[in-house]
Amino acid sequence: MKKKRGNKGLHPRKPSKGVKKMSTLNALKQKLQGSKFRWLNELMYTKSGEDSFAMIKETPKLFEEYHQGYREQTKQWPERPVDKALKWLSGRPKDWFVIDLGCGDAELSKRAPQTRVQNFDLAPAPNAGNVTVCNIASLPLQSSTVDVAIFCLSLMGIDYGSFIEEAARVLKSKGWLWIAEVQSRCIDEQGRSMLDDLVSGIESIGFSLKSKSIENSHFFTIVFQKQETQKMKRTSFPALRACMYKKR
Ligand code: SAH
Fold it and tell me: What is the pLDDT of residues 61-91, one digit of tens each?
């Protein structure tokens, strides 16, 4: 009787023990990275900008890990707010001076039609290019010099109101403030939306609301213009919730 020949090449072979061990190790590594990202993320939402800055300065590796985790999360999103920001910027004057506050990977500066886009973050993410390292509550910019300030998911500190006030300082009269945030951050303990409180907080420091978009179920965008004569009758900003990412 003829001996049955092996079917090498027709069916995938069973992974060898070594390969199996590697994939288990990789899965574990990914899980660990995921939980580290969630831990860091929560820390940054429950600290002031200054405290997060001090933490990142002390351990820069934390920032790299945060960004790796953030990138992994955004891969799953059907739409990224940074693309919305790009859409908004396209068709606007190319000579506008744009600042990307909490720029992360600095995609705006790479893809926006404006030639002057300055990036700001607590540390430079790998491949972000030129980033001005600072806490965005205190920008190394002169007052009334900026055309557009973008906060794309970056109102992270408990003192985020001071980030917006700093943007108000550096924006020119009639300059634009563009904000995207996660919707669930704006829902209080009773399930009530705090979006109107956020909007009136921002209006109280001299902005007028130009558009509000909540059609996407995950994020909202609010766009303001700085008024020529500022009211500056500061009301408080609501305490936004931390954005918690799910375990994957
Ligand atoms: N805007 C980017 C990244 C969002 S992640 C995007 O949409 O893809 C939020 C970013 O805000 C992080 O890079 C974080 O480091 C930055 N950030 C948060 N608080 C900050 C602060 N106080 N000063 C500077 N950057 C801050």
Answer: 888 888 888 888 888 888 899 999 999 999 8
- What is the Å distance from ligand 1's center to 206 Cα? 24
pTM: predicted TM-score of the whole model, two decimal places: 0.88
Residue from 44, 65, 121 whose mutation best tests the ligand 1 pocket (most atoms within 8 A of CB): 121
| Confidence check: pLDDT of 178 > 80 | yes
State the distance from the centre of ligand 1 to the C-alpha of 100, rounded, in angstroms. Answer: 9
User: Measuring CA to CA, which residue among 74, 82, 112, 78 is closest to residue 96?
Assistant: 112
Sheet holding 97-101, edge to edge: 132-133, 116-121, 97-101, 146-152, 171-182, 219-226, 207-213
Rg (CA), the chain: 22
Protein residue with its CA nearest to atom 22 in ligand 1: 49
